[in-house]
Amino acid sequence: MNVAKGGYRVFSANSTPACTELSKKITERLGVELGKSVVYQESNRETRVEIKESVRGQTIFIIQTIPRDVNTAIMELLIMAYALKTSCAKNIIGVIPYFPYSKQCKMRKRGSIVCKLLASMLAKAGLTHIITMDLHQKEIQGFFAFPVDNLRASPFLVQYIQEEIPDYRNAIIVAKSPSAAKRAQSFAERLRLGLAVMHGEAQCSESDMADGRHSPPCVRNTFGHSGLELPLMMAKEKPPITVVGDVGGRIAIIVDDIIDDVEDFVATAEILKERGAYKIYVMATHGLLSADAPRLIEESAIDEVVVTNTVPHEVQKLQCPKIKTVDVSMILAEAIRRIHNGESMAYLFRNITVDD
Question: Per the CB 3.0–4.6 Å rule, which of 50, 148, 302, 331 could disulfide with 38?
Answer without folding.
Answer: 50
